[in-house]
Every structure is written in structure tokens, then in C-alpha cells.
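HOLO CASE FILE
Compound: iron/sulfur cluster
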Amino acid sequence: MQRIVALGVEVKLNSRVDNILESMQTGKFDAAFLAVGAHIGKRAYIPAGDTARIVDAISVLRSMEREDKPMLGRRVIVYGGGNTAIDVARTAKRMGADPIIVYRRNREKAPAHDFEIEEALQEGVMVKWLSTIKQAGESSITIEKMVLDDKGFPQPTGEFETMEADSVVLALGQDVDLGLLDGVPGLELTDGVVKVAPNMMTGHPGIFAGGDMVPAERNVTVAIGHGKKAARHIDAWLRNATHEAPKKHEVATFERLNTWYYSDAPKTVQPMLDIIRRQSTFDEVQGGLDETNALFEARRCLSCGNCFECDNCYGVCPDNAVIKLGAGNRFEFNYDYCKGCGICAAECPCGAIVMEPEKL
Ligand SMILES: Cc1cc2nc3c(=O)[nH]c(=O)nc-3n(C[C@H](O)[C@H](O)[C@H](O)COP(=O)(O)OP(=O)(O)OC[C@H]3O[C@@H](n4cnc5c(N)ncnc54)[C@H](O)[C@@H]3O)c2cc1C
Ligand code: SF4
Ligand code: SF4
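Model generated. C-alpha cells follow.
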């Protein structure tokens, strides 16, 4: 954040935008990038008695930061198979409950990251795969077993089971609050998210969007990527130009690497909190890398297909055809001197040089 502020970006915290067009007009902004996320918990219709306690996962997680922590009871059923379901089940475990995740498909088809499912299982979270909730009562729920059809869709079997439950937490995904876009002409919505062009611009000129509010995989990596991509396109759009992403080079496959140039460097092990503390505290489960370890990890990169200026080609070329352009600028080839012997390509550790037949 500090690096962004240092670039000259002004940050206004705790400011809600209710009407994007109005905000753009008042602030005299020519372009806007929206990334409001998806924060409205989806509901599912579950026939339930008056006393059944059904809450949504986002509210439960949000209230964990406040004094009024949710009273979920001991037997907590979490309905869903995404990262939110895993988070809420692991949270319930830390609060002393016995959470059980109920998900309609199997582990392979669950949208949650598999390592998170594994960590939840290690902590004692139980999972009922291939099950849907049919009914919720005061202290129990009825679930129906499912089977996957040829296309991987869950189908009911008519087999039912009753499980004890003090509460049901719905973690069935989140919708986007698109209120700030009310009345904006030209927008196209699909399944509750805003369509964007390849340059991340919505159907309204000057309004760009990314992250969870556009059709894409919902995770942090994708959201950050959208921000970076959109920034380049907005910059071009403001200058009446178009941004062309540089062409990607051919993939440097393993055969093109000369691995003997590299020394063996085993992966750094990240510290894992012991299981008892994982089940009873909210301490960080997997420790991050400290500065030394992070630098070591960066040095393990083989830089496949990307010149890292080892000077090998410069040293081995028998015809002085490799021209050094200075630190950070890599090399150029003098094709008047190069006789195409291919020694440089053969000796490049990372497969960054490609030999191409001369076009006559
Ligand atoms: C419980 C949970 C667990 C998850 N676990 C993982 C995980 O393990 N790994 C992973 O990669 N992803 C995970 N995700 C998904 C990930 O959090 C999202 O994909 C990512 O944060 C999306 O980024 P975003 O910028 O689109 O939205 P967000 O990160 O949601 O940010 C949106 C921001 O906009 C603000 N905002 C909203 N409306 C307005 C408005 N009108 N005016 C001003 N500000 C507004 C919000 O307050 C918020 O700060 C998880 C999501 C949830 C809910
Ligand atoms: S092209 Fe390959 S051999 Fe030449 S400096 Fe870069 S990494 Fe080294
Ligand atoms: S192909 Fe041979 S001559 Fe040409 S730059 Fe490489 S090493 Fe030098």
C-alpha cells in the first residue's frame, strides 16, 4: 500500500460510493476502475421450522471481528464447498464447535483449494460429500445423498439421513452489490456480474471493472491480475491509445534447459503451527518466509526462457556476435558476424535463445 501511495495515489478510506456516475462527475474523473467484490451471501431455500438457526457465512465471519460473536452451538453444519465454507468451518472449530461441512458434490469437484480442505480435515472438520440439506429442524437436519451423473452434476438418490445440528451456516457463494451502477447506460450483466471487454472496460466508456464483480475465477491472484491489467488499459485509454500486451515467447520446456549450470537448492520449508494450537487459536497456520528465505527462494528460480544475464552466450560465441547492452538490458545479436553455429543457444542455461532458419 505504501508503495502505491508513494507513486502519488491518493487513498480515501471509509468512503462508500453509492452512484458511480455521480462520483465521477463530482470528482471530475475521466475513468474509474471498480472492484467492489462479492459480499452478499447467497441464500438457498431450505424448509425450516421457526426454531431452526440458519445464518449466512459472510455475516458469521464478519462478526468474528466484533464483540457479538455468533452463537452457533456445538454441532455446526456448514453448507457449501468453497473457500468460504472451509473458512467458516475452521473458525467454528476454533470456537470449540464440532463443524460438519455438507456439500452436494465430491472433494474433486469442490471449488475450495484442495490444500485448504486438507488442512480443515487435519484440524478435525468433518465433511459429508455428495449430500444436500432437505430440511432443517430445531436440533437436527435431514440430508439427502446425491450421486454425480455423467456430466458431473449431482442427482438426488431418495436416500435420507438425519444429523444433529444446533445451527446451519450457509456458504453457498456470494452475489455482487451492483447498487452503485444503477442507471449507468451500456452495461451488460451476466449471472449477476458485470461483463467487461478484453481491456477490462465495461459497456460504459471509461468505467472499468475487475475482481469478483466480473465473470472470472474468484480468487486473490485473479483479482490482483485484473487490477494490473486494467491499470495499463486505463492509462492507454486516457491517452487515446490502445495497450498491446507484449507477445509471449515460446515456452522454454525442460529439454531446453541446461540444468547442470544450476546448483541443487531444496525448497524452503514454511513453518506449520502444531495441530492443537491450530484447533484452539486463531494464530497463523502457515508461517510466511522471512527476508533471507524469500531471497533464497527467489534465487531458486531457473528463469526458464528469460535471459538472466549470466554472460554465457557472450563468453562462448566464437565470432563476437553477441553484443552486451548493459545491466538490465540483456543482449543483442550482430547477425552480420553470426555464422549460426548455435553454440550460444546450446549453452544458454535457461533456454532463452531460439535458433531460427534465415528467411532468404
Ligand atoms: C470467506 C472467504 C474466503 C476466501 N478465501 C480465499 C482464499 O483462500 N484464497 C483466495 O485466493 N481467495 C479467497 N477468497 C476470494 C477472494 O477473497 C476474492 O476473490 C478477492 O478478495 C476479490 O478481490 P476484489 O478486489 O474483487 O474484492 P474484495 O477483496 O472483496 O474487495 C472489495 C472492496 O470494495 C469495498 N466496497 C464494496 N462496495 C463498495 C462501494 N460501494 N464503495 C466503496 N467501496 C466498496 C469493500 O468494502 C472491499 O474493501 C475468499 C473469499 C471469501 C469471502
Ligand atoms: S541469453 Fe542465456 S546464456 Fe545469454 S546471458 Fe542470457 S541467460 Fe545467459
Ligand atoms: S549462433 Fe554461434 S555465432 Fe551466432 S551468436 Fe550464437 S554462438 Fe555466436
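CASE NOTES: The chain has a mean pLDDT of 94. The radius of gyration is 27 Å.
CLOSED: yes
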